[in-house]
Amino acid sequence: MATDSWAQAVDEQEAAAESIGHLQIKEKPEENGTAANVTDSSSAPAKSEAEGDGKSTEDDDKDDRAAQSLLNKLIRNNLVNTTNQVEVLQKDPSSPLYSVKSFEELRLKPQLLQGVYGMGFNRPSKIQETALPMMLAEPPQNLIAQSQSGTGKTAAFVLAMLSHVDPNNKYPQCLCVSPTYELALQTGKVIEQMGKYYPEVKLVYAIRGNKLQRGMKLQEQIVIGTPGTMLDWCSKFKFIDPKKVKVFVLDEADVMIATQGHQDQSIRIQRMLPKNCQMLLFSATFEESVWNFAQRIVPDPNIIKLKREEETLDTIKQYYVLCNCKEEKFKALCNIYGAITIAQAMIFCHTRKTAGWLAGELSREGHQVALLSGEMQVEQRAAVIERFRDGKEKVLVTTNVCARGIDVEQVSVVINFDLPIDKDGSPDNETYLHRIGRTGRFGKRGLAINMVDSKMSMNILNRIQTHFNKKIEKLDTDDLDEIEKIAS
Ligand SMILES: Nc1ncnc2c1ncn2[C@@H]1O[C@H](COP(=O)(O)OP(=O)(O)OP(=O)(O)O)[C@@H](O)[C@H]1O
């Protein structure tokens, strides 16, 4: 749907909602709500039903992106290393651009500085250097910030929210909207950690299942939640007075825009806020659709972008092995393992079935194998990836869908047990680059081995070679000397 037409649709729905609002609908009595002190994480509400009603492809896509995002958060315990420069586009290009090299320069409240250091942060990350002074400036400035997962965006806007609230005022002053329950909880945890020494500031979760008593007014200064419930709390139930909100954060905008409903709800919330409310929008990607959405919702924004490290195939040695069936591919794999020392490898299969079979075979051969499979819950997947990242298992077998968007940087060898293809059976060059690219990070040499088992897969391989204009050498896995050579 074009931007304008859905904006119109929002207006129409809103008008309809208003007229429905006049009807008397008898509601079920609601239970007591759940609020959290920023020092208390035990009060997060229990998991409730998923947001949204019908399950569509669009929702699946949203779930997929949200799951990736959550996985990356769950498995990461430090900042992503980046050497890229920050691009800044200021609303007023003539105003001086501040950037800070230390948290002290931000003149934070001592309790917050203590919280920041307590989390082990010594200095601001790349994006935080520029984003924090902008977010903390007076008068408040709107900001759209884009940088890859793990570069410190969440920590940045959490610090901004905690800095802006006045704990003496017992009403919501900051609203933060996340696309899913789990992501909201993750951000909530960061607020709790960073606000550990600032217990006067309280946090509440606006998530379906967290029922409040009718007619009550929230006293917590920060509300974090999903857009549907947040909207209900602002308009239908009036637990929040949106006119008193000073900061509005939209987290994971790229995921948020993947569902039309989330966009609409976010826009409706935003329309209830005062004109001078600070708008902060964060996103890991910056596609056209995110940009359109951002422009709708954030007036006169400053923009900060941190480009992703370009993935290249320059430092990666690529080979292919000819086989006739999956058993032969497995044998080739064993030969490779027998000839060279592989610190850690990721093996990609096309289907769950192949991945399961291969993991079983490798385990029987005595390998410590981790298997990432589609039917696992997000938390289970995170646990598997975390164990692999910590080196507890040396081989990670996965389907592409499972590993999409997941950053495990230390692997030295990538094996395409099946070549990556898209839905139409054409080569998926982007996925190929992303899979292989992870072996050659930070100038280290990586090794990629592709298993070819049919005319069709040979054709795919040829097209991948042509696309990247890079030769993929043939490897004879029965020749141990030859295999040894590739590792040197
Ligand atoms: N200045 C800092 N110094 C050290 N570690 C930091 C700093 N800022 C954030 N971190 C840590 O780095 C990790 C990634 O930060 P954060 O979650 O804020 O990134 P993000 O960009 O929001 O990622 P995502 O897009 O996945 O949400 C976290 O473990 C966080 O605690």
UniProtKB/TrEMBL annotation:
Motif Q motif mapped to chain: 101-129
The protein's Enzyme Commission number: 3.6.4.13
Ranges of residues in domain DEAD-box RNA helicase Q: 101-129
Region Disordered: start-end pairs: 1-62
Pfam families reported in the protein's UniProt record: DEAD, Helicase_C
Top-tier EC class: hydrolase
Sequence ranges of Basic and acidic residues compositional bias: 48-57
Biased composition (Polar residues): 34-45
Domain Helicase C-terminal, first and last residues per copy: 315-483
Span of domain Helicase ATP-binding: 134-304
Keyword list, A-Z: ATP-binding, Cytoplasm, Helicase, Hydrolase, Nucleotide-binding, Nucleus, RNA-binding
Domain of life: Eukaryota
Record-linked Gene3D superfamilies: 6.10.250.2170, P-loop containing nucleotide triphosphate hydrolases (3.40.50.300)
Cellular compartments annotated: Cytoplasm; Nucleus
Keyword Transport: no
GO cellular component, one term: nucleus
GO MF annotation terms: ATP binding; hydrolase activity; RNA binding; RNA helicase activity
Catalysed reactions, semicolon-separated: ATP + H2O = ADP + phosphate + H(+)
Protein name: RNA helicase
Species of origin: Parambassis ranga
